[in-house]
Design brief:
Strand order of the largest sheet: 1-2-3-4-5-6-8-7
Bound molecules: coenzyme A
Radius of gyration: 15 Å
Distance between the termini: 21 Å
Largest sheet: 8 strands, mixed
Structural class: alpha+beta
Order of helices and strands: EEHHEEEHEHEE
Number of strands: 8
Length: 165
Amino acid sequence: MSQYQDFILRPAVIEDAARMWQFVIDSKALDPNSPYCYLVLCHHFANTCVVADFVDGTMAGFIAGYRPPEAHDTVVVWQIGSAARHRGRGLGLAMLGELLRREDCREVSYLEATVTPSNTASRAMFTALARELKADYIQSTGFEASLFPKESNHEPERLFRIGPF
Ligand SMILES: CC(C)(COP(=O)(O)OP(=O)(O)OC[C@H]1O[C@@H](n2cnc3c(N)ncnc32)[C@H](O)[C@@H]1OP(=O)(O)O)[C@@H](O)C(=O)NCCC(=O)NCCS
């Protein structure tokens, strides 16, 4: 747990799942997953998730992350969001910093995330993280648009891999 400006950054607890789901719906930017999916994240992956509580008790942001079973040196940031009113104040980077300082990320030297080509803010944030960590990063194919259901009109998800750090 850590403090950044008016935010407390901490691991997820099971009671966060419903709020995470609502946060994603309200964001209109993140892919909505089922409420059950957020229960799984907050239950089994709590220590690689970050919740940012604002002083007024509202959820200011969150990270849904996990360590892939076949890559012990890597943490994947599956979803990250800052509430619209808190963006541009360093909260995204602060949540990523909190995640990387965790005991669960002790062996981690790479961070991966996928970013859609149109998501300028997300790409800027991960580029800024690489700079902060003084680490290289590579971008590669990730998930082609053809892997998503046609009806979803989903953009491709380019893989952003930062490290080693
Ligand atoms: C991407 C997102 C999480 C960034 O959160 P944030 O709290 O505003 O990020 P920060 O304030 O820590 O900014 C980090 C860096 O990104 C840059 N940045 C953030 N938003 C930007 C934007 N819209 N355009 C250009 N650069 C931007 C900042 O300038 C900063 O870089 P710097 O340190 O070089 O100045 C936020 O915009 C968001 O929630 N977007 C909607 C959800 C989403 O797209 N999530 C990512 C996909 S999973």
